[in-house]
Design a protein that fits this description.
- With 112 residues, the protein is α+β, with helices and mostly antiparallel strands.
- It is built from four helices and four strands, in the order ββββαααα.
- A two-stranded antiparallel ribbon has the order 1-4.
- Helix 3 (74-93) runs antiparallel to helix 4.
- The longest helix is centred in the C-terminal third of the chain and has 20 residues, at 74-93.
- It is globular and about 45 Å long.
Length: 112
């Protein structure tokens, strides 16, 4: 797949299930993450998942990119990473995810 051609990510320690439902703030405003499924992988997989189910505030992504900017092509590669989660949800929770799976597959096929 051309979208992955030349992409050589450095392994990063990932939360593994990072979406808005697994993030909160203490009364003092400190961020808290919970329900981890920790593994080492491409950091783009983690960020892709944050965008999958509602996303985080724009400030989160701006701050991330300020510290460790994403490489060109992320906007296409994220669909590969999110397809796994969509297929998993389709398997676990049923047809409600079928439309999203089909849409993602169409996006990926157009990129071939």
């Amino acid at each position: 797949m051309r979208a992955l051609e030349g992409h050589r990510p450095r392994p990063s320690l990932l939360h593994g299930d990072l979406w808005s439902g697994n993030a909160a703030f203490t009364a003092q405003g400190e961020p808290v993450l919970f329900d981890p499924a920790v593994y080492c992988g491409d950091r783009e997989a983690e960020l892709a998942m944050t965008e999958l189910f509602g996303g985080f505030p724009g400030e989160f992504y701006a701050a991330y990119n300020e510290v460790y900017a994403l490489e060109a092509g992320y906007a296409q590669r994220k669909h590969f990473y999110n397809l796994y989660h969509l297929l998993n949800h389709l398997n676990l929770f049923g047809g409600g995810y079928l439309g999203q799976v089909r849409s993602t597959l169409r996006l990926l096929l157009r990129g071939l």
